[in-house]
Amino acid sequence: MKLVILGAGESGIGAALLGKQKGFEVFVSDGGQIKDIYKQELAVNNIPFEEGHHSWNIILEADEIVKSPGIPEKSELMKKVRERGVSVISEIEFAWRFSKDKKIIAITGSNGKSTTTALTYHIFRTAGLNAALVGNIGISYARQVALEPADYYVIEISSFQLDDIRDFKPDVAILLNITPDHLDRYDYKMENYVASKFRIAMNQTKEDFFIYCKDDPEIRHYLETKPIYSEPIPFSIMEPLKEGGFIENEQLNIHVKDEPVIMSMYDLALKGKHNLYNSMAAGIAGRTMDIRKEKIRESLASFKSLEHRMEYVATVRGVDFINDSKATNVNSVWFALESMERPVVLIMGGVDKGNDYSAIRDLVREKVKAIICLGVDNRPIHEGLSKDIEVMVNTDNMKDAVAAAFQMSSKGDVVLLSPACASFDLFKNYEERGRQFKEAVREL
């Protein structure tokens, strides 16, 4: 069987390795340049590949194509593939075919995916289970299945990856929230994006679990109009629930199966309102897999947050520096500001994806004393927020941005890097942006 992999990022290489291992005739094609480390892997495994162009004759003769989540349907490449009627799947679907006898916990949402996935994994590992952390968060699902199979797969999944699943069925699906993001890939229609997120549950049966945020209006509306066949388990910070996760008397409650998990909000490792949601979702996932309440409590109290996601860097002369470089949309910045209890000097900017800054205007007025713009074009931030703040400074490199933020701050303040934008104008990716921030802070 001829398997063509389109895109040679982490997910594409993982799919290629798994395909080769399972005896497929594999060919990898990337229209851009392939990283050297990936080229070496392909060469060592005798997997033919091309970069910088696509060989239509090979691609269109494929029995099946595994498509990178980054390739849009509107591209010339995908139009030709669809015309030919070749079967197209995502790497998630491909990896699942060879691991569907294991337990799959899949997590999606517009915000909080990485934190919740890492926290769920932490709970499973603390309980002594053979679990793997895969998907958008690190190594690809397919690579893990090929090289180091596990009994439990905790997977972070984006809507782009869900768009090309067919039979993928998680035992536990978590949907955290749905806010406008990537609408350019969904014909600028919110309902298309919502439907894409709900694909995570489309193949589930009554033996499976669907864990969702009851406080999210988009999720609630969808569930009122469309059926879900798995067992729904809600979580909420607005109201006590008979079953699911909720907050009452400053305690986090998880009532799933017969053993309730109850712990003080103040004992949770992750702070801020948005992290109450993430902690409940992860804790519920643990209970669906019969992890004991003691282990769940211990995990929720001991978790260390992820790099580039509300990551504490250092305190310099009484000023705390927080790296939230992974906040690439306005909603993520809203969550970051909402959790702040001290005055904030905010570093933001980059490639603006048509951001609407009105969502954070109230929080900026209430909590932010200065904004340091970091980007090639800072006009959208000025236009969106200049009426809400007196001090705005333009910078075009991280060292200057950190120095300016430090200068504007006083003892007891927080300097927060939470960009609301993609990083590609000045950095390779959000990780490089976060690392440069940490380096600049350490040099102060």
Automatic annotation (TrEMBL):
Keywords: ATP-binding, Cell cycle, Cell division, Cell shape, Cell wall biogenesis/degradation, Cytoplasm, Ligase, Nucleotide-binding, Peptidoglycan synthesis. Residues 308-421 form the Mur ligase C-terminal domain. GO terms for cellular component: cytoplasm. It is found in: Cytoplasm. ATP binds at residues 109-115. It catalyses: UDP-N-acetyl-alpha-D-muramoyl-L-alanine + D-glutamate + ATP = UDP-N-acetyl-alpha-D-muramoyl-L-alanyl-D-glutamate + ADP + phosphate + H(+). GO terms for biological process: cell division; cell wall organization; peptidoglycan biosynthetic process; regulation of cell shape. SUPFAM superfamilies: MurCD N-terminal domain (SSF51984), MurD-like peptide ligases, catalytic domain (SSF53623), MurD-like peptide ligases, peptide-binding domain (SSF53244). Pathway: Cell wall biogenesis; peptidoglycan biosynthesis. It comes from the Bacteria. Pfam families: Mur_ligase_C, Mur_ligase_M, MurD-like_N. InterPro entries: Mur-like_cat_sf, Mur_ligase_C, Mur_ligase_C_dom_sf, Mur_ligase_cen, MurD. Its EC number is 6.3.2.9. Belongs to the MurCDEF family. Cell wall formation. Catalyzes the addition of glutamate to the nucleotide precursor UDP-N-acetylmuramoyl-L-alanine (UMA). NCBIfam families: murD. This is UDP-N-acetylmuramoylalanine--D-glutamate ligase. It comes from Chitinophaga niabensis. The lineage of its organism: Bacteria, Pseudomonadati, Bacteroidota, Chitinophagia, Chitinophagales.
